[in-house]
Amino acid sequence: MIKYEINPGFDCLKDFVLNVHQLFPDLETTLQNSRNHVKVTEHKGIKLCIKSFGNHNPINRIVYSFIRPSKANRSFNYALKLLDLGVNTPDPVAFVEYYNSSRILQNSYSISVYLEHDLSLKHAFDFELSDRLELLSGFARFACNELHNNGILHKDLSASNVLIKNNPEGINEFYLIDLNRMRFRKNISFRKRMANLKRINGTAICLGTIAHFYSLEYRGDPVWGALQIAKDRISWMKYRRAKKGLKTSLKAIKNIFGLKPTVQHN
Q: At what angle are helices 204-219 and 190-197 packed, to 10 degrees?
């Protein structure tokens, strides 16, 4: 069984959308090949980015089948919501879900228009100081005014998930990707804003710089944000280390008892 939704502006791609499961393995250009595979192709003159959400564990398969929307579904609909709020993200094309005869989710795909961009926020960390300050201060204003002031929390706000495009006027535009973990609130406190920014996987200096400009934009105080994000970053790193230790322990237990994860080949 298949479930899908297509953005009305891309009805011309329906043939591709309905056959994406069969086409995906033969697409040659791969951007990411880990737990979730990301590939790029062109169809009818439109360059597309396709993300395959596969290899869910049994519990998540049931959850995404009966309780919660799938990652592909959320990615598609959150993109539409961001665009409605005036926040840049690649145009969503469709999502597709494939179920077995028991109506259990087997695989899902999120399809969007591929965004031609200049770099990601992650690459900006390596720039010379003057250029880096311009990009980081611009991102701080983007995060404050376009995300948090609109009640948007990107729960996977890594530097790789922020793309930067320099428009014809020479202004840097910021785009969000990897949208399946989003939260929308009426109001976001300053502490929660800083806690959200701590997810950016940059150096302490880069994070402090972002917090400095963010705090200056939000409350006219360039110091408070840096202090708050430093405190939150320490707590975040402790959490990540504890989580990594737990995963290592679980993996060791699985190996002891001969339990191996099931990998589904599409």
A: 150
Instruction: Count up the domains in the chain and report the number.
Output: 2
For residue 6 the two structure tokens come to 């297509």
Helix (H) or strand (E) segment spanning residue 63: helix 58-66
Residue 29: enclosing H or E segment and its boundaries? Answer: strand 29-33
In this structure, the strands spanning 152-154 and 182-184 are: antiparallel
Tens digit of each residue's pLDDT (9 = 90 or more) over 17-58: 999 999 999 987 787 666 678 999 999 999 999 999 977 788
pLDDT in tens, 169-212: 888 999 999 999 999 998 999 889 988 988 887 777 888 888 88
Give CA torsion, residues 60, 61, 64, 66, to 10 deg. Answer: -120
With beta carbons less than 8 A apart as the criterion, state whether 113 and 24 touch: no
Q: Sort strands 29-33 and 92-99 into parallel, antiparallel or unpaired.
A: unpaired
The Cα angle at residue 237 between residues 235 and 240, in degrees rounded to 5: 110
Whether 84 and 49 map to the same domain: the answer is: yes
Q: Could you write out the three-class secondary structure of 165-214?
A: EECCCCCEEEEECCCCCEEECCCCCHHHHHHHHCCCCCCHHHHHHHHHHH
**Are residue 95 and residue 141 in the same domain, yes or no?**
no
pLDDT for position 255 = 59
Extract the tokens encoding 234.
């320490």
105 and 176 housed in the same domain: no
Helix (H) or strand (E) holding 74: helix 71-84
24 and 101 in a single domain? The answer is yes
CB 81 within 8 A of CB 51: no
- Is the pTM here over 0.90, yes or no? no
